[in-house]
Amino acid sequence: MLPAGLQLSAAADLTDSVTAWLTWLGAEKRASKHTLDGYGRDLAAFLLFLTEHHGALPTLASLAALTPADIRAFLARRTEAGISRASLARGLSALRSLFARLDQQGVLHNPVMAVIRTPRLPKAAPKALSEAEAADSLEHIAEIASEPWIGDRDLALITLLYGCGLRLGEALGLTRAEAPLSDVLRVRGKGNKERIVPVLPVITEAMRAYLAACPHPLPPDGPLFVGARGGPLNPGVVQRQVRRLRAALALPESATPHALRHSFATHLLASGGDLRTIQELLGHASLSTTQRYTEVDAARLLAVHRAAHPRSRRAVPTP
Question: Is 0.70 surpassed by the pTM of this model?
Fold first, then answer.
């Protein structure tokens, strides 16, 4: 089914095929809601472009007749509109997936996407906080809250993000029954994939303090983290609090809720954690993704290498 509120500028046959493709992605490929929404918007923009470009609603037949020039014209229009390279790449991924699915089903065959190159994305490594910055964040987050219980909530949340390496959406998606009050936590991440992460005592302590202070009822199947009025906590509220914390502690602009997840991975690796284990804890399908998430001080690595490698040790002269 189409994401809520999405309208496609296309003939009925193509609309039905796109709807079936999105349904297949969600049901069979276990694509996340975020991915489905993004792909849906990308296809809506593409079909609207084709409507304007060709002066008629696109059909399956017109999709089968598309040329590389049509795709490049669409990319040029998106670039002129200020669309980022990352969004352009996602849009091309959506088109490739749709064309491949329709070809697999025998609905249409058009190898046009094979000759279109994906825009090269910058490989800037995500920024992690230093251990001192992470510690300061945990120490002072409660101080900027409007109410004491909200301070307890914010401390429990960012302790969970940093201590377990969760995505913000994963943490806010927890129910009261799933509160991390034991040694392990089951997390349902991207693609509905489940992973198990260990829970540190400092996390359970912060969580118990928040649960004891929260003035709102928290039913077992309701959200664990709630806002000031008792509804589900909005991620925008969390991001705003972290911005305020950033200003109070003079932290870099890269200090965001997601930076705590990078910090979790980076600090584990710097302390001797195994990259494969960190991959499992983060829920990454690819080890290369985990490598991008981990930043370790080069000088520290060099010092460890020199101390540990046999060829770096100076031989002790024999008397």
Answer: no
